[in-house]
Amino acid sequence: MIFNSINIFAIIGRIFINFLRTVGNVSIFAVNSVLSIFSPPFYGRAILSSLYQIGFTSLPVIGLTAIFTGAALALNIYDGSIRFNAEAFLPQILGVSITRELGPVMAALMLAGRSASAMAAEIGTMRVTEQIDAMSTLKVKPFNYLIAPRIIAGVIAMPLLVLIADIIGIYGGWLVAVYGLDFSGTIFIRNLSDFLVMRDITSGLIKAGVFGFIISLMGCYYGFHSGGGARGVGDATRTAVVAAAVLILASNYLMTSLLVKV
Amino acid sequence: MENSKISIRDVSKSFGTKKVLQKLSLEVPEGKSFVILGPSGVGKSILLKTMLGIVTPEQGVIEIDGVNILSSRKTRIDKTNQIGMLFQGAALFDSFKVWENIAFRLIQGEGQSRKQARIRADECLAQVGLTPDVANAYPSEISGGMQKRVGLARAIAAKPKILFFDEPTTGLDPIMADIINTLIKEQVSALGATAISITHDMASAKKIGDRLAMLHQGQIIWQGSADEIDHSGNGIVDQFINGRAEGPLVLTS
Ligand SMILES: Nc1ncnc2c1ncn2[C@@H]1O[C@H](COP(=O)(O)OP(=O)(O)OP(=O)(O)O)[C@@H](O)[C@H]1O
Ligand SMILES: [Mg+2]
Predict the structure, then answer these.
(1) Which residues of chain A have a CB within 8 Å of the CB of B82?
(2) Residue ranges covered by each domain of chain A
(3) B residues 122-151 near A, CB within 8 Å?
(4) Looking at residue A3, what is its pLDDT?
(5) With contacts defined as CB-CB under 8 Å, which chain B residues touch A41?
(6) What DSSP character marks residue B138?
(7) b or e along B100-129 (b: 16 or more beta carbons within 10 Å of the residue's beta carbon)?
(8) Among candidates A111, A222, A102, which has minimal Cα distance to A157?
């Protein structure tokens, strides 16, 4: 009995220590990544190709996610607000929900599944096939060449994607409101634009920048530390996506509570 | 007494409980071709990686040109930048074309124009016996032996002062193996480079090596010239060069 409880403490202790170690390692990696962004050499081509990969090729996924989310959200808001005769506020509620919360979070989660996994798999494969070692023998620092461009691209691309997601998401809600719920299209837009303030949009974009950083950081970190073989890369990919998603949701709450200043 | 280009003293490296290098010491003379022999899994690749600064040993000193590369990050990078390395698995960048792989250091590391680097890449490609049409292929589109030769071309492209070859002829046919051996010899004499090669192949060891060394249980247990190895008087060396399963050398892992 006593031995059993000691065992449990030992296991909990070990898990906790491992957790702290990971947090420490990720923090060091994050600091090194940020330092490598500001230290030459800079690889413009690598940044552009990361921007293309993370930003441009994600557009269809982000667009589809946004339009369906916006459409479903409009239906839900209507159905809920009609109970206290407040359905006229649909545009306002829709606008705030999408710009502040759903646009950034949905886009970030989609991108975590899409880009964090791709980065972890790509960098992880380079790790296990010794391409990263080879790079360092060719006078190129892997941090500057592989990590920095992806972090930069994540932080730049994510707010742009969210801006687009906001617009498409609201358009999805507008379609439902106008063609399904007999709203007037122009009044919808007028109400929305009278109501929304800059802070609604910028707070979402600030979140988006942080989410972009998290996505690239997790993809790079787990790829860079991938274990051997196909299995190691598989593990790295899965862990990167899960870690990115959890950090996105947790940091979202944290940032929201700071940004709404309650 | 010749100058040592690389000098290793009491280097130890283990992975978990597995001791790979145990207080290993080694002097590699400048401008010579050095060959390291040893059975699979003995730590030959790890030894090269410690000299490259990729693997950090728990203890010991690794000097290149008399400077300890373990003393600071800057000296490590400065000194190891003069090494060209052929990895055991070639380690080509699979998102780059063959010629871009060869020119990678020239373009990304040294800021040469793509046009200028292309000329050197084609030159190196020819040196390793590959036809120009391979230049625009991707590594996944060429055979393993060809990948090895591209890896070799990439290692020599920047005309480094030190060359490491991790099993350069493994996976090549005997004729191509001989071409590569000749090439290594040429590079060493033409560039005045210091070379360290790992090989299992006794014929190529004798051909390219000015000096041969045998790695066993984390240490260099024998070294000498190519002529001396046939009558080394060392049971392990004898067993290894004659490829006998029976003997003092027991392969465990
Ligand atoms: N990252 C690592 N983690 C744990 N053990 C490792 C690691 N890298 C190498 N080893 C161990 O170190 C030992 C030496 O490996 P190394 O690759 O140097 O062998 P080698 O002499 O080059 O063999 P081969 O001729 O087959 O290439 C092996 O037993 C291997 O299991
Ligand atoms: Mg090896």
Answers:
(1) none
(2) 43-259
(3) none
(4) 59
(5) 111
(6) -
(7) bbbbbbbbbbeebeeeebbebbbebbebbb
(8) A111
Tokens 């020239």, residue?
B106
Q: Per the confidence metrics, is the pTM higher than 0.90?
A: yes
pLDDT of residue A13 exceeding 60: yes
Sheet of B4-15: strand order equals B18-29, B4-15, B59-64, B67-68
- Using a CB–CB cutoff of 8 Å, tell me whether B109 touches chain A: yes
B33 ligand 1 Cβ < 6 A: no
Specify whether the CB–CB gap between B199 and B37 falls below 8 A.
yes
B20 lines ligand 1 (CB under 6 A): yes
In chain B, the residue whose alpha carbon lies closest to the alpha carbon of A46 is B108
Alpha helices in B38-194 (DSSP H): 44-52, 73-80, 98-102, 104, 114-127, 144-156, 174-191
Render A61-110 in DSSP notation, one character per residue. HHHHHHHHHHHHHHHHHHHHHGGGT-GGGHHHHHHHIIIIIIHHHHHHHH
**Residue at B183: amino acid letter:** L
E strand or H helix that includes residue B196: strand B194-198
Has residue B233 got a pLDDT over 90?
Answer: no
Task: State the smallest CA–CA distance between residue B219 and chain A in angstroms.
Answer: 24
Q: Is B84 in the pocket of ligand 1 (CB under 6 A)?
A: no
> Which residues does residue A4 pair with via DSSP β-bridges, in sequence order?
none
C-beta separation of A151 from A49 below 8 A: no
Which atom in ligand 1 lies closest to the alpha carbon of residue B16?
Answer: 4
pLDDT digits (tens, 9 = 90+) for B62-72: 999 999 999 99
Cα–Cα–Cα angle for A155, A248, A216, nearest 5°?
40
Query: Is the ipTM reported for this complex over the cut 0.90?
Result: yes
Q: Read off the tokens for B127.
A: 């040196």
- B178-184: long-range pairs with CB below 8 Å, 24+: B178/B204, B178/B207, B179/B128, B179/B129, B180/B128, B180/B149, B180/B152, B181/B207, B181/B208, B183/B127, B183/B128, B183/B152, B184/B33, B184/B208
Q: Which stretches of chain A are DSSP H helices?
A: 2-38, 44-54, 59-81, 90-96, 103-111, 117-128, 131-136, 142, 148-180, 185-195, 198-224, 229-259
Strand ordering across the sheet containing B33-37: B83-86, B162-166, B194-198, B33-37, B211-216, B219-224
* Residues recorded for chain B: 253
Instruction: Say which of A43, A131, A133 has its CB closest to residue B108.
Output: A43
Mutate to test the pocket of ligand 1, among B11, B37, B44 (most ligand atoms within 8 A of CB): B44
Q: What is the mean pLDDT of residues A125-136?
A: 96
